[in-house]
Amino acid sequence: MVNDPIRMTALAAAAVWMLQxxxxxxxxxxxxxxxxxxxxxxxxxxxNVYGTNYIYPSERTVKYFAETGMNIVRLPFRWxxxxxxxxxxxxxxxxxxxxxxxxLLRAYDMTVVLNPHNFGYYDGKRMMTPDLxxxxxxxxxxxxxxxxxxxxxxxxxxxxxxxxxxxxxxxxAVNQAITGIRAVGADNLVLVPGTNWSGATSWxxxxxxxxxxxxxxxxxxxxxxxxYEVHQYMDEDYSGTHETCPKAAGALEGLERFTGWLAxxxxxxxxxxxxxxxxxxxxxxxxxxxxxxxxxxxxxVGWTYWAAGEWWPQTEGNNIQPVDGKDRAQLTELMPNLQxxxxxxxxxxx
Length: 350
What we know:
CATH topology: TIM Barrel
Radius of gyration: 20 Å
Order of helices and strands: HEHEHHEEEHEHEHEHEHEH
Mean pLDDT: 91
Number of strands: 10
Low-confidence stretches: 1-26
Distance between the termini: 38 Å
CATH architecture: Alpha-Beta Barrel
């Protein structure tokens, strides 16, 4: 081989460019592309009146996103509402509402990610404390798994963004929940977040409470059917709460580093939340992220954009709920990517 530094630099640059090319029709791509439909996680500190304090997606909204080509919805809800007394049966009426929402999504051929949107808390109590030990979390997932066991179009998203649980404690809760899920015969795909908000850019970092990359490699799944869920935004602090995206490049680099970690683990990932405003840098960043995942379908199961829903504030920058029948700029940006969805069976990934 000729020792030509200029030539080697050019080849390296070409390799990176090829890695991030969009998937062409008929080529590899991730198989799940969709959206978070917000609403059922609202109002937990209110009177909990359905239709007043919280709501599940309407058929109009479900139909709209299904017609874009999306094939998965991450469905946030509140643990306290579905199980008002932890360790006790699920509340019958709320379970009925959840199942009706699932059936509506199924009618439009949508896979559903069930997502307790609790940030590692229940009624103000933090998980993995004497008040809320791992067994309580496992009990919840055993009861919910029994309702959807073996349904290939139902994915279990264990928890939204646990943020202040020590990583080793969180791993214990995860493994007990997965053990319980498998013990009742549910072989559904399970999505496992890390602690510290489960950010892709911070996954390999030493943070208060631990390092996700070191600790979460200890996930044990008897069925071998899980993926790591991360979230990633592009604004100044990666929180998704600002209108501009000065860290779009850093967000993509975070996905790249996380993908390398997945390869080392022989594991797969799912981008459960990402988003941005109509700012041009945000729109370009969205395209870069979905193209990168499509170029790496051996490591990525798919993604769900944050967010949409009838009650999502119209002024919220990340919102892609249509207004007056018009598509939002972010959805228009994502539409070309929705034309190619991988045909591999992602309900079983290993």
